[in-house]
Amino acid sequence: MVVGFEKAVSATKSVVTSAKKAPTTLSLDRIINFARGDPTMYESYWRQMGEKCTVVISGHNLMSYFSNAGHFCWFLMPELDRAIRRLHCVVGNAVVDDDRYIVVGNGSTQLFQAVLYALSSSYDPDTEPLSVVAAAPFYSSYPEETEFLRSRLYKWAGDAYSFDKDGAYIEVVTSPNNPDGAIREAVVNRDGGKLIHDLAYYWPQYTPITGKADNDIMLFTFSKATGHAGSRIGWAIVKDVEVATKMVKFMELSSIGVSKESQLRAAKILEVISDDCQNSAPDKEENFFEYGQRLMSDRWEKLREVVKRNGVFSLPKYPQDYCNFIGKYTDPSPAFAWLKSKDGLNCDNLLRELKIVTRGGTNFGVDSNYTRISMLSPNEEFNLLLERLSAIQGTIINGNN
Prior knowledge:
alpha/beta; 35% helix; 12 helices; transaminase activity; 15 strands; aminotransferase; disordered C terminus; transferase; PyrdxlP-dep_Trfase_major
């Protein structure tokens, strides 16, 4: 039932009152932020790895701009190129044959800008800018990132489902989708369209790996693959050398390449993951993806139980599928929970009353009764989230108390 504004405010206040009286140990004085996708939950795994991923760089090392002067992506270190290709082969989530071109960037955000430039730069700038669309709910940063430079080459055109303009366009396909975790395909499917596949979450800890993605342009990021967001490393796998070369030109003009220190660290960590995944010793410990899949699955089980108990919210249901990497059927465990209020309340505002900061549905092109909650926070914060959600009573929301 969708309630009016006054009733929604009253219901929200009742929920907070109920939570304050609930016999729990939660501290309502502490604000917990679940709006960000900061993958700090993986810190404990990498801490237990000790010095295994340590990289030592002397003062005289890595002084040149160039990593491989004869390569089309002259700032991409060969070590990182090899590590990326190897990991994708080990996991089986993307085609990285020799005819695929790797472009490294300062996170996938910069690569997104580079792709927009590469795909739109061949069009006449005196004509109307190229439309960029994504199916709602879409990643909340796409509109801002697209409009930020106020380019004459491209512009944000909104929800792909409602896009009806003729001519060339760019569609961003995020799969698994951020925010709702759904497996996505292109929506518009018309002549003149160019596709960007954002596959940041196509890793075994988030979703079953059902096959090798083989799209024209695929974006991945170190932050979501391993948790190392601070290194600011992303990469694109591109089929068309002309598109890849234009992306490199964008990188050259915007940042003159990518930090070699970050690339070496990323290469080392990716190699460690690949080594562990291919370790067939009988006494081997779980590899990073097995650890992540177990942790994410456990978190989702706990969250679903809390949501089921309080009766105020609902969560999407995902089909189980066979994961080629894990070697069995697994349930998707997305990096974000797409929470919906059952009674039409502003979900983001309701949770903020309990000092839980989330990112509301309007940021993703949908109604305010949705909100996105990060599942990647440290254990202490995640447990506090569960505690606060447990204090909300569905009978209070429905006015049946």
